[in-house]
Amino acid sequence: MDRKTRLDTFPGIGPARARALKKLGLETVGDLLSYYPRAYEDRTKMYAISNAPADLPVCVSAMVAEVPSVSRIRKGLNVTKCRVVDHTGSAQVTFFNQDYVRHALQPGESYIFYGKLEVVGHRRQFTNPVFEQEDRTRFTGRIMPVYPLTAGVSNNLLAGLALPGVEACAALVPEELPDCVRLSHGLCTAEYACQNVHFPADTEALAIAKRRLVFEELFFLSCGMSFLRRRRTGVEGRRFPPRESREFLALLPFAPTGAQRRAMEEISADLSSGRPMNRLVQGDVGSGKTAVAAWAAFLAHAAGTQSAMMAPTEILARQHFETLTKLLAPARIVVGLLTGSMKASEKKSVRTALAKGDIHLVVGTHALLSEGVEYADLGLVITDEQHRFGVGQRSALSSKARTAPHVLVMSATPIPRTLALLIYGDLDVTVIDELPPGRTPVETYLVGEDKRQRMYNFVRKNVAQGHQVYVICPAVEEGEGSDLKAVTAYAKELSEQVFPDLRVGLVHGKLKSGDKEAVMTAFAGGGLDVLVATTVVEVGVDVPNASLMVIENAERFGLSQLHQLRGRVGRGQWQSYCVLVTGSRSQETLERLRYFTKTTDGFKIAEKDLELRGPGDFFGQRQHGLPTLQAADLAGDTRVLKEAQEAAEELLGADPDLSAPEHRSVMAKVKRLFAEDGDIFN
Ligand code: ADP
Ligand code: MG
User: Fold this and answer.
1) Which of 599, 624, 651 is the last residue of a domain?
2) Residue 508: which of 489, 534, 485, 538 has the closest Cα?
3) Residue at 337 is within a domain
4) Which value, to the nearest 10 degrees, does the dihedral of the CA atoms of residues 136, 140, 146, 151 take?
5) Does residue 369 sit in the same domain as residue 474?
6) Closest ligand relative to 540 C-alpha
7) Span 520-538, mean pLDDT?
8) Pocket test for ligand 1, best of 261, 284, 290 (most atoms within 8 A of CB)
């Protein structure tokens, strides 16, 4: 067996299971080795029935004392029960909807049961434990990996494949970290890491393995980003002549804030520097990034070149188009719109105007990247809400210019400094840390299930005052079946039972993009009172009339994501509200949510989030446009991130092209890591 060995050559893996495994990206032993557990179960300690601690997962060895009985409680709910005994006492074992257990558990045989032992009065009971026959245990006595699963793939199946896979192949995992880096940072070998991340010898070994894997991944990523940044400094850019801002300021219907002015100055300096600008403007929602982008487009036009602005959704592109047309038309700057849903003839005329230079600033979606879009002279590329676009897409748009264009990236996602370096490592960063005057902060409340009725009344009150309401439900990985069903059912309940007299709409990530746009447009136009939505609404749609956001199961969101969501309200002159609903009783969770109700500063919230949950959470959201990361999800500690960054800087400082023979493997690895993003290293 080696890392290329296909999983469907293992006993028990037929075509159906192979297909299910493929859904998880698992086709070979090598895939499995880099498929990391999301948690672990400690099955090393054995207890007797009568002295096992209650309500904690434990291993108990016991004999099945009777033939298991199956009874049907109602349609879709079967219960299998039996009694088990050891030398200290007996316990009831109950399984829900696992009819096979009746045949799997033989009376008179002994098994190791692993699960929580509940104590009810004098009775002890296990519910849905996992079990292995005592004389054939594979996982008892180990720290057992718990893998992310999908339908048709059980944890026992994956662990059962991983066990021989790790045994045979851990030693074959290539050591990709240069020895100098590995040794000076006290990291274990690739082999040790592979063994212990799957089947840790003990918790200490697990920590050592995780540290290595996380370090490794963040190190290569940091190398890639530093490499891009360093390479850029050698490139020629077009020099736009500096210009007074007076004429532009006269176009604005407001006086810019100090932070906006600073951003404008930095952009002017970049554009006239003779090197291509690569700047990220980070500012909380509503901080006024559009005006800053308009200034950049104004300068590009003054220098006789065109600008393109890319937004992640049609509706956002249209909003920008309208705002910018109003703002820039008096300066005789022609603004165009190009989106995928436009008629072919409309698209064609926009394309022609762009190629002739008749449009000075074009706003659009991914359509801007498509073949056949040509520019007379593209001098500036602006992307909005960049975390939805990959590094590669950014450079794809740039490649439509004859010489390296200036690039301006705008993001409303506050990201702590350490992470910003990684995610936007190839960009210079400006932070707009000031909101325009006169904003009323969103009032935020945390309520339990007992206040649900009052919350519904509050929804009604807001609608009665002529406002609109968002109701957000979690669907963590969009499209996870059960979440999606729950959201759909909840929307139905709201529209049919709770608010039969209100206009309730539903939008989620699995709708066709046309349907999605239609619902959003209806809500934006006031055609809906209540919009039930998953996090698809997170990205900058502007519905100033929305005055209330209710967030269900708030405990399932990270703080930064809650902040992003809350930014959808509080965009009008009136007082707006955000209500977090949770059934959680965990003190930790409640504290986290309470912190959120008291803070409106996005950067503080992001720092707190990073502190509480580690970088894994940020990477988990997969919205950063970075290559897919595996190990960083394991990271619970930002120290490793800093260390990996420093190591990358050090290595590139010593060998900027990574051309030394002992560093070639680093370059190769970096290229592979960014492979999804196209050929950005050439
Ligand atoms: P962002 O894109 O950063 O979320 P926008 O650029 O959409 O924010 O601005 C939000 C709102 O604030 C817009 O209605 C805009 O006209 C207004 N605005 C922006 N800057 C100022 C300012 N300096 N003073 C008053 N209002 C402003
Ligand atoms: Mg915006």
Assistant:
1) 599
2) 534
3) yes
4) 30
5) no
6) 2
7) 87
8) 290
CATH classification of the domain holding 77: 2.40.50.140
Shortest-distance Cα residue to atom 15 of ligand 1: 288
Q: Which residues pair with 144 in a beta bridge?
A: 41
Ligand 1 in contact with 533 (CB < 6 A)? no
Residue owning tokens 């965009």: 571
- Which amino acid is located at 523 in the chain? F
Residue nearest to atom 19 of ligand 1 (CA): 288
Nearest CA to ligand 1 atom 11: 286
Phi/psi-derived region of residue 128, left when phi > 0, alpha when psi is between -120 and 50, beta in every other case: left
Query: Amino acid identity of 431?
Result: V
Are residues 466 and 366 located together in one domain of the fold? Answer: no
Say yes or no: CB of residue 561 within 6 Å of ligand 1. no
CATH number at residue 36: 1.10.150
Position 622 pLDDT exceeds 50: no
The domain total for the chain is: 4
Six-digit token string for 80: 């299998």
Identify which of 245, 252, 254 to mutate to test ligand 1's pocket (most ligand atoms within 8 A of the CB).
254
Can you tell me which residue has the tokens 């409309």? 346
The verdict on the CB of residue 319 being under 6 Å from ligand 1 is no
Other beta carbons within 10 angstroms of residue 291's beta carbon come to 23
Cα 289 to averaged position of ligand 1 atoms, centre (Å) = 7
Same domain, 339 and 395: yes
Q: How would you write 387-415 as a 3-class SS string? A: HHCCHHHHHHHHCCCCCCCEEEEEECCCC
254 lines ligand 1 (CB under 6 A): yes
Residue 425 lies in a domain: no
Mean of the per-residue pLDDT values of the chain? 87
Residue 662 lies in a domain: no
Span 391-404, mean pLDDT?
A: 64
Same domain, 593 and 469: yes
311 shares its domain with 402: yes
Q: What angle do CA 397, 399, 403 make, to 5 degrees?
A: 125
Q: State which residues form the domain around 161.
A: 1-40+149-172
AA letter at 575 = Q
Domain-located, residue 213: no
Q: Is it the case that residue 294 has pLDDT exceeding 90?
A: yes
- CATH number for the domain including 330? 3.40.50.300
pLDDT in tens, 219-229: 998 888 877 77
User: How many angstroms is it from 273 CA to the middle of ligand 1?
Assistant: 28
Ligand 1, atom 2: closest residue by C-alpha = 289
Compute, in angstroms, the gap from residue 286 CA to the centroid of ligand 1.
Answer: 5
Does the beta carbon of 386 sit less than 6 angstroms from any atom of ligand 1? Answer: no
For ligand 1, say whether the CB of 541 is within 6 Å of any of its atoms: no
Same domain, 358 and 481: no
414 lines ligand 1 (CB under 6 A): no
CA of 537 to the centre of ligand 2 (A): 13
pLDDT digits (tens, 9 = 90+) for 577-594: 999 999 998 888 999 999
Q: Is the CB of 474 under 6 A from ligand 1?
A: no
Task: Kindly tell me if the per-residue pLDDT of 478 is higher than 50.
Answer: no
Which tokens sit at 551? 């967030």
Residues 333 and 364 in one domain: yes
- My answer on whether 33 and 54 are in the same domain is no
